[in-house]
Amino acid sequence: MTIKVMIVDDQMMVREGFSVLLNAMPDIEVVGEAVNGREAVTKVAELRPDVVLMDIRMPELNGIEATREIAATHPEARVLVLTTFDLDEYVYQALRAGASGFLLKDASARQLAEGVRVVASGEALLAPTVTRRLINEFSKLAQAPRIASVAQLGELTERETEVLALIAQGLSNAEIASHLVVAESTIKTHVSRILVKLGLRDRTQAAVFAYEARLVTPG
User: Which sequence positions carry the modification called 4-aspartylphosphate (predicted)?
Assistant: First the structure.
């Protein structure tokens, strides 16, 4: 299957550069572009992309608000946040808004394509070392109430709690299965139950939840 991608950035050079790189991949097709968040929300409804590459700082409607609207109205579209450096002060808020991960704008063509594939598959693009540092720094800045509470953790079984902690450390389903010596299908079932019990959209929000609930601590 071809992965349909939409690029959202107010800089033409960035849009054109990413478009050329991604269209060179046999399994990826850029189906559209947008110059701001408001246009992105409209075009997602029209084009139905699988992945939206979303800049954060844009006029009219920033990437955080656009991500929040897309996550609410078109949850099938995975948002991959673009940032110029690994501690962009808004990335944490974008993850809470429903983004499935983030990618540096100076990523190589291989990293860009692989990031799109990872997010399109339903996984979270969360580099453990960067994510722990990011959440540690910017959870302090979040204006909205925390999505996590210690009480909610009590709804999980011991094994589900263990899986949630491993998700927060950036492990994939296959890596978690290997770590716990169980089948990958078993882990997928655990992840699905965790999301339902905690009322979360995807494993990215599950990772944020784990940090906010202090199930794991940034290192």
Answer: 55
Parse the chain into domains and list their residue ranges.
3-125, 150-212
Average pLDDT over the chain reads 83
The per-residue pLDDT for 119 is 87
Among all chains, which residue has been given the structure tokens 């509470």? Answer: 149
The pTM of this model reads: 0.71
Does an H or E element contain 59, and which? none
Task: Assign 133 a pLDDT band (cuts: 50, 70, 90).
Answer: low
Among the listed residues 130, 131, 128, 81, the one whose alpha carbon sits nearest the alpha carbon of residue 103: 81
Q: Same CATH fold, 150-212 and 3-125?
A: no
| Whole-number percent of the chain with pLDDT over 90 | 42
> 150-212 domain in CATH 1.20.1250.20?
no
The predicted structure's pLDDT at residue 121? 83
What is d(CA 48, CA 179) in angstroms, rounded to the nearest whole number? 36
pLDDT greater at residue 1 or residue 117: 117
Q: How far is CA 3 from CA 35, 120, 123, 144, 188, in A?
A: 21, 7, 14, 33, 22
- What CATH superfamily classification does 3-125 receive? Response regulator (3.40.50.2300)
* DSSP conformation class of 125: B
The one-letter amino acid code at 47 reads L
